[in-house]
Amino acid sequence: MDEMDCVTVIAPVNIAVIKYWGKRDEKLILPINDSVSVTLDTSIMCAKTSVCFGPEFTENEIWLNGVKTSFSNPRLVNVLDKIKNIAATQRSVDNAVLTWKVRVCSENNFPTAAGLASSAAGYACLVTALAKLYKIKTDVSVLARIGSGSACRSVFGGFVRWHAGVNADGSDSIATQIADSTHWPEMKALILVVSDIKKHTSSTIGMMNSVNTSDLLKYRAKYSVPRRTEEISEAILKKDFTKFAELTMKDSNQFHAVCLDTYPPCVYMTDVSHKIVEIIHAYNDMCGELKVAYTFDAGPNACLYLLDKEVPTVLNLIKHLFPTSNLDFVIGLGDVDGGDCKFLNSFPIQPQAKDIIKYVIHTKVGKGPEVVTSHLLDKKGNPLNVN
Q: Is this entry keyworded Nuclease (predicted)?
């Protein structure tokens, strides 16, 4: 096994501001509406995946966060088969290579399945690495989409739009970049981790139930999202934070309203999540303008978007209202000094119980996937992180 036969990629998390929820085709993972997201910096949150192949491997194998997992997941198999078919058509590798089994090792540096878009980063990583391993040329966002829908947005940095498309074969359901990671450098994100445990209702099951039972979802897809998608894309290009914040919060609220309109309802936000919403609205009211926007994916954790000049004051507010015993409460870009503390004692919401927020991830807009040289597999294709 030569080192060149191993490809390792890191890929970013993306957090949607216009949500993807519901599929028109389960197998091809075609959404019922467009979505828009922000790609976050890989130096703070990322998935890392190494892939290799060889004639000596007797079966396809995958390790996730140090644990060997079944390769029989239909989406995983579908992605590999699709890439091999493209490689055969393009004749990018020898025919014998197409018969070889693969070995995959993947790790996240953030909680998996806790509503932090772990599958998006993971599949964006996987398809980027496999595409390079098999030397194919194709739209990687399409390959990522058939693994995990929102993964197609993680193949680009900056601000990204996933086009739902109309074609039955999904050929026009692709992601495109609205603006790159350098476009709005003042934009920052604070992720408030309320829980890092696996959610009760998976996104896949929740979406299926919503499509089958929610009238609000139909209205959302037909009327709300098309308008919001255009408006927030324009707000991003103009760097209009007020409009961006308003649309982000309204869409998050409507998404969770759809979840409650689903039968049986799927509830992802907790009492702490709702308290964060209350706090952000109170803060914006005190400021007299929208300074911070919240959004919640299918989980209890809040992602706050704000401009960098607002970060010190908002972090002071969070630490005041959510007391902690965690000495490393703010991670990523870390804590920052300064900020306005004068209003804390007059803030209309009292401090909450200790340690109900585990930690805060301070991060920024980042780039798309990158090939790296530090592998998770050794020269024989064995996982380095498994005893």
A: no
